[in-house]
Structures are given as structure tokens and as C-alpha cells.
Amino acid sequence: MNALTTQDPVNIVQITDTHLYGGNNGTLLKMNTRESYDHVIKLIQTREKAIDCILATGDIAQDASKEAYQEFLESISCFDTTTRWIPGNHDNATTMAEVASGTSACEKIIQINNWLIILLDSSILGQVHGTLASSELEFLKQSLASAEENAAVEHCLVCLHHNPVPGNAGWMKDIGLNNGAAFFKVLKKSSKAGTVLYGHIHQQLDFQHQGIRCLCSPSSCIQFKPNVTNFALDKLNPGYRWLKLYTDGRVETEVVRVSGEIFEADFSSPGY
């Protein structure tokens, strides 16, 4: 792991919506998700020389198999750093916890320098849309309240899988977080929570909502086309997001996509 001083920015890599299968041979709309994921991992190895934490923000496995989760953790171990993961709508949180036993992958809080990273479970088993259960909202509320009283914490990054703001395509209107208003109500009571990081809708977004910066990141496999009525795949390549969290609260970030590769996918599919 990178040896930080208190003035260094915190270097974060977000990987999301990997949709892996146990056995490495599964495809999602004809794209081999392990092959595309491996390209993203190689890209990270090439570009990111100092990583303080990897955040995997859900839909780790398409088949929710123990093998897929094990393969993810094994593959990510090539980076000598901390990893945290949270479940998405395709995941099984219980299986993830079993596979992560003995590791810190399922821990929901991490403080690095003066930044507190909070990870929330928005998944509902068997449902595409998400919600933050009352226990999750209370956890967020208490974590932010503790941060307000802790002089060593000056800024908070909050992570979840589902989009807390409605998606930008007609077919996405019912697949996001169904209690986003309650989520933002909690965030706005904190002076230190300024950024939200998520996945789920397989797109690159960076915008402000109610004074909170919202960052959505592309999948390591298929991409969803924005601003359409019906389901459609985008032809952009898979990628990941890096973030630099500065001690003064600034967040510098960029999405990096695999280049020089053509990925097979069913671009005519009406859904999945």
C-alpha cells in the first residue's frame, strides 16, 4: 500500500458492475465479462502506480456464485492495497460476506487521512431497484454525526450501488434507489458529506444534485446508452474511475477506458 503523509491526496480506484461468472466463461449480451474485466485490471496496473483503496461498488457477480466472488478477490489481490465491496442487485450479500470472511472487504467504514469513506448496501435480494433500509439510513446518519464530532475527519465520500438520482433513459426510471429523497436529506444535514459515488447504470456521469456531487462510473463490461427511451447498449469501451481526495476537500477524478480493443456485444438487444 502507498505510504501516505497527512498532506497527500488519497488515491482511490473504483471498479463497478463487473458481472463476473464462476468459471470465467460467462457472457452478458455476448460480452465475456471476465475478459473485459481482465482488460480493465491490466489498464489499472499500467496507469495507477499508487492506490490507497479499491472500491468495488456492486454487481460483482452476475450469477451470485461463490466462485465468482472468490475469483474477483483473487484477481484484485495483485494490487497491494485495501479493497472494499458492496452488493448490487445481481449480488448475494450473504455469499459475499462468506467469501470475504477473514478480510476487510465487507467493512463499511474506512478512514484515510482526513477522509471518511462510507459504504452502503442498497440491494434488495431479487429486485432490480434499490432501497436504503431504515438500518442503512440510520448507519449513515450515525456515521455522519460521528464525523461531525471528529476533528480528524473533515470530508466524507459516500458509496452505494444504485443511482440515487433517476437515470437519464426512459427504461431506467424504476431501477434506481427508491428512497433517494431520504438519502439526500441525511446527506444535507452533514457539513462534511459532499460527494456520492455509485454504479448500476453503466455510465459515466459527474453532476451536482442538491449541492452534492454525484459520480457514476462505467461498467467493466457492457455500457448503457444514455438519453434513450428503450434499452440500448452504448459502443463505448469498458473502464474504471480514479479519484484523488485532497485534504482541502477537492475531488479530482477521471474515467479511463480500455483502448485499442474491440469488444463483442449484442448491440441490438432489447434488454437483459
Q: In CATH terms, what is the fold-level topology?
A: Purple Acid Phosphatase, chain A, domain 2
CATH architecture: 4-Layer Sandwich
Q: Report low-confidence residues grouped into runs of 5 or more.
A: none
Mean pLDDT, all residues:
96
Number of DSSP helices? 5
Global structural class: alpha/beta
**How far is it from the N-terminal to the C-terminal residue, by CA?**
38 Å
**Percentage of residues in DSSP E strands:** 15-25%
Helix content: 10-25%
Shape: globular
What strand line-up does the widest sheet have? 6-7-8-9-11-10
Provide tags for this entry.
globular; Purple Acid Phosphatase, chain A, domain 2; 5-stranded mixed β-sheet; alpha/beta; single chain; 272 residues; 6-stranded mixed β-sheet
